[in-house]
Automatic annotation (TrEMBL):
Could be involved in insertion of integral membrane proteins into the membrane. It comes from Pelagibaculum spongiae. This is Putative membrane protein insertion efficiency factor. The lineage of its organism: Bacteria, Pseudomonadati, Pseudomonadota, Gammaproteobacteria, Oceanospirillales. NCBIfam families: membrane protein insertion efficiency factor YidD. HAMAP family: UPF0161_YidD. It is a peripheral membrane protein.
């Protein structure tokens, strides 16, 4: 429920307030897109905190640039498994075969 409310608030910002302010975000993805992804990926509390920290970093004195939402623990584990499988698939020794 809280997650849906937060997502609605960000979406209202995107549709109503953001067009009036113009393209000022120094990061990619934009802070509002980051907020939506963070809330969807990490939940209302952690994702909301991540979005708040990101908005705090977005000011005229920061360099900006590419700043993706961090992976969840499950995504990190899956990515590690994929990398290990790729590395081990090139090996012909029986040690890595399962």
């Amino acid at each position: 429920m809280f997650k849906k409310i937060m997502l609605k608030l960000v979406r209202i910002y995107q549709l109503v307030i953001s067009p009036l302010m113009g393209p000022n975000c120094r990061y990619y993805p934009t802070c509002s897109a980051y907020a939506i992804e963070a809330i969807n990926k990490h939940g209302a509390i952690r994702g909301g905190w991540m979005a708040t920290r990101r908005i705090g970093r977005c000011h005229p004195f920061c360099a900006g640039g590419y700043d993706p939402v961090p992976l969840t623990e499950a995504e990190k584990i899956q990515r590690t498994r994929e990398i290990l499988q790729t590395e081990n698939s090139d090996c012909d020794c029986s040690q890595h075969k399962r």
